[in-house]
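Q: Structure tokens for this one, please.
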Amino acid sequence: MESTPSPADPTDAAGIGKLELIEYPHPALLRRASPLVRIDDELCNAIDQMFEIMYDAVGVGLAANQVGLPYRLFIVNLEANPNSGEELVFINPTLSRPRGTALQEEGCLSLPGLRMDVRRPEKVVLDAWTLEGEQVRLDLDGFLARVVQHEFDHLEGRLFTDRLPDAAALEARRVLDTMLEVYVGKQSRGELPPDAHYHAELARLEAARCPPAGPARGSA
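A: Here is the predicted structure, written as tokens:
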């Protein structure tokens, strides 16, 4: 588990800088993301970095909070390859009209080595904005519907382990507890900053591109 680097220019209140994939239990993964109201060059550069990070990890989807960004944004390429497939960017997504049910194995780049069968709706409608400012509505099914739901869960501060039945959840809990122990150990040795550092950084990034949070808003 690595800390998210500081922005390249710490005097820039909107600076993002170099991104890294983060792992459980980094606070960004457990915090509900905020809607974007500002898209700038820094954010576009961050999205380019997200695709690079996703491809390096051989992933098909990546949510912004998996790289320490508190924004309602995720990317997808079902081919997991920069030279093939379609690169999709979904901003401020919402999901509706879940239909059917399907059971399929899932993994997560922020939970390396953990794979479990997850039951989800087979079909769902996605409403979102593209990076070009166009509003889209897609009626999804199959693998794309599953990937979109997995990434949307991230934006809600949820992991796929939250959807497991009791027996499987208990098995996954052992893995998560081990990851937590490693994380806390690194913090105690000064190898990682305290969670307060991450919360302050998330708040700074939110203030730069998101509307003010209401009094009832909090972690999912």
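A few notes: The domain at 27-190 is CATH 3.90.45.10 (Peptide Deformylase). The chain has a mean pLDDT of 92.
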